[in-house]
Amino acid sequence: MPALPLDEAGKYVAGAYVVFIALVGIYVAIMAAKLARIERELGELNELVDRRVAASPRSGASHE
Amino acid sequence: MYGKGLRTLSLASSLLLTAAFGLVFFYAPNDADQGFVQKIFYLHVPMAIVALGGFVAGGVMAIAHLRTRDRRWDMRSYVAIHLSLVLAVGVLVTGSIWARAAWGHWWVWNEPMLVSFLIIFLLYACYQPLRFSIEDPERQARYASVFAVIAGAFVPLNFLAVRLAQAYTHPRVLGTTGGNMPGSMRLTGLVALIGMVALFVTLWKYEMTSKHAGQQLGALRRKLAGDEEILPAGPSATPTATLPARPEA
User: Fold this and answer.
1) Nearest to B123 by CA among B145, B106, B148, B140
2) Quick one: average pLDDT of B161-172?
């Protein structure tokens, strides 16, 4: 096949690069969501430890 | 542990890929035969090389797991294969886009390189269902490692078989003659390949950091559960199949 003219080929090239950027973007977004979940759970555990320390200062001191 | 040097690596990957894309569109000349469409190769080929390399690396890490029984190697292998699968999707899609522009078809079934890559992709697409169909973490890691080693050995064999095939129409970008590429194209391709490798390593480290943090969180939750029964049960509270039997150092 002869080479496509620039205006015709441009959309294919743009499409390929958009696919790559979208793939990396989706991957990073999923990673960000996972990290946000870990952060939230860490906060929950922190709160739990704080509550236990407040409820029983002597036993809570061992966690510090 | 895995987060060390992540910022530098992320910056290096971004810079390398930006430089590569800059070279693709402002430095490398249009191909005399294919014209502007050939610019897809600077993305498609490095992605394919890195995806296949990632599959092989996953196999090597799986060997390390089988030899040492250290579950961290299984985790590394899993992440490398998972990431390679994502890149393989990109390879198939960008390859199809190029095929449509260059050959007039989205897919050509009698083209060995395309079909062999699809076979490798489908082979590795079985990796995760196999892995997560086994509940026992020890068995899961062992079976997944065996799969990764066998499939990892299949990748270069498959590549060689295609190279030796007579009737192919897929362009040979890399060969003993260097594909007769001018220096500007070769440099652009090389920078794109280094950028893609850097991106792979960066994303691999990101995922490993995330998994390691999740494991540590699970270990902390279990420690606290030893003291108190009622704990908030988040998704990472239950040790998943990818968690090691013991907390990592």
Assistant:
1) B148
2) 65
d(CA A41, CA B236): 8
Calculate how close chain B gets to A33, using CA atoms only, in Å.
10
> Between B2 and B217, where is the model more confident?
B217
Searching chain B, which residue's CA lies closest to the CA of residue A21? B90
pLDDT for A8 beyond 90: no
Radius of gyration of chain B (CA): 21
Burial classification of residue B212, based on how many CB atoms lie within 10 Å of its CB (0-12 exposed, 13-18 middle, 19 or more buried): middle
Put simply, the answer to whether B236 touches A41 (Cβ < 8 Å) is: yes
Any idea what DSSP says for residue B191?
H
Distance (Å, whole) CA B223 – CA B208: 22
CA–CA dist A63, B54 (Å, integer):
42
Cα–Cα dist B114/B52, whole Å: 13
The SS3 assignment for B94 reads helix
Cβ B113 vs Cβ B170: under 8 Å: yes
What is the Cα–Cα distance from B9 to B161, expressed in whole angstroms?
Answer: 35
Q: Which pLDDT belongs to residue B179?
A: 58
The better pLDDT of the pair B235, B188 is held by: B188
Contact criterion met (CB below 8 Å) for B23 and B188: yes
Pick from B40, B93, B210: which is nearest to A31 by CB? B210
Q: Which of residues 39-98 of B touch A (CB under 8 A)?
A: 39-40, 43-44, 47, 86-87, 89-90, 93-94, 97-98
Provide the shortest C-alpha distance from residue B100 to chain A (in Å). 8
Q: What is the pTM assigned to this prediction?
A: 0.83
Average pLDDT over residues A22-34: 93
Residue type, B158: N
pLDDT value of position B167: 53
Chain B residues lying within 8 Å of A15, measured CB to CB: 97
Structure-token pair, residue B245: 């039997």
Among A43-52, B165-174, B185-194, B204-213, the minimum mean pLDDT is found in B165-174
